[in-house]
Design brief:
Elements (H helix, E strand, L loop, with lengths): L1 H9 L2 H14 L2 H27 L4
Helix pairs in contact: 1-2
Length: about 60
C-alpha cells in the first residue's frame, strides 16, 4: 500500500486521478449518490462564484 502511494505521488496528475478513483471506490454506494446529488445542486453556484472571484479578486 505504501509503495503504491509513493508511485502514485510521482505520477503527478495521473496519480491524482488514480488516487481519487481509489478513494471513490471505497465510499459506500449510498454516500456516493448523496455526494453526486449535492454536487449537482451546489456545483454550478460554486463554479460561478469562483469565476466571479477570479475576474474580480477584491470582492
Amino acid at each position: 500500500m505504501l509503495l503504491r502511494r509513493l508511485l502514485l505521488r510521482r505520477l503527478g496528475p495521473l496519480g491524482a486521478v488514480l488516487t481519487a478513483y481509489d478513494i471513490w471506490r471505497r465510499i459506500p454506494p449510498k454516500h456516493r449518490k448523496r455526494l453526486l446529488r449535492t454536487a449537482r445542486k451546489h456545483g454550478p453556484r460554486l463554479a460561478s462564484e469562483a469565476a466571479r472571484r477570479r475576474r474580480n479578486p477584491k470582492l
